[in-house]
Design a protein that fits this description.
heterodimer; A: about 150 residues; alpha+beta; 3 helices; B: about 100 residues; Translation Initiation Factor IF3; 4-stranded mixed sheet; 2 helices; about 35% helix
């Protein structure tokens, strides 16, 4: 009985706080994406040829996020029937966008115009031998070359 | 030391290639951080301890790669790639590699 109560409390906590955290995160992602729209992140390698004198430097951003108890429970249920696991889709979406935003913020500090050859690396660091919490948390690392114009003064 | 992940150094000409340079590090998770992370696993959200741990480890791998390039007499590394693999339970390997070059 006591175990059931703990389980339901954890589910409720996970649902409420997880939902709050996700909404807050998405809000901040939308706001910052709008602000950093002036620095495009490209996946092409060739530098556009023009007369600007430019310099380049590696910029990167990384983030580790985890899902809440409720979503993990849903995902475990899904494992029985198969199909889309929406809760993990939003987790990875948030992680990738956050990593790209952090990279862009670093580029903005350097006064960059554009980020070239952006690569995204995903790793699940919490790999455990217990099958239960296999995904749980995910790390996304974004990196690219930020190009800045050299001032002539 | 200039590091880029495209095939050239913007605004500069490459005059000499030195070949592959690499750096790696393997980090295990900290027990205190692990405890905080397991709490976060209930509520969801960012695991700041792990983010720090991994970015520290990545800069360590980058530093080792840079040291190797400096030993060759290079002053830039182009086409840098990062990769991550988990070798053992609770430990992650961070690996950085690129081509050491000298620019004007």
């Amino acid at each position: 009985m006591i175990e059931l109560i703990i389980f339901i409390t954890l589910l409720a906590f996970g649902y409420i706080f997880g939902k709050m955290a996700e909404n807050r995160h998405y809000k901040s992602i939308f706001a910052r994406e709008k602000k950093l729209l002036r620095i495009p992140a490209l996946t092409i390698k060739t530098i556009p040829q023009d007369n600007l004198q430019i310099t380049g430097e590696l910029v990167s951003g990384s983030v580790v996020v985890s899902v809440d108890y409720f979503k993990r429970f849903l995902a475990n249920l899904r494992n029985l029937f198969g199909g889309r696991i929406i809760s993990y889709e939003t987790l990875l979406d948030r992680a990738r966008r956050e990593a790209i935003l952090r990279m862009k913020e670093q580029a903005a500090e350097k006064g960059a115009l554009v980020i070239m050859n952006v690569r995204l690396e995903t790793a699940s660091i919490n790999k455990s031998s217990r099958k239960r919490n296999n995904v749980g948390s995910v790390e996304v690392f974004a990196y690219g070359t930020a190009l800045a114009a050299v001032s002539n003064s | 030391m200039i590091i880029t992940n495209i095939e050239q150094v913007p605004g500069k000409n490459i005059i000499e290639h030195f070949g592959l340079v690499q750096g790696n590090t393997i980090r295990a998770k900290h027990i205190g951080r692990d405890f905080m992370a397991s709490l976060k696993n209930i509520f969801g959200g960012e695991l700041k301890g792990y983010t720090e741990l991994l970015s520290e480890a990545r800069s360590e791998a980058t530093d080792r790669m840079k040291a190797q390039a400096e030993a060759f007499g290079a002053n830039a590394i182009v086409n840098v790639r990062y990769s991550t693999s988990s070798v053992a339970q609770g430990a992650a390997e961070l690996y950085a590699y690129g081509t050491a070059v000298r620019v004007e």
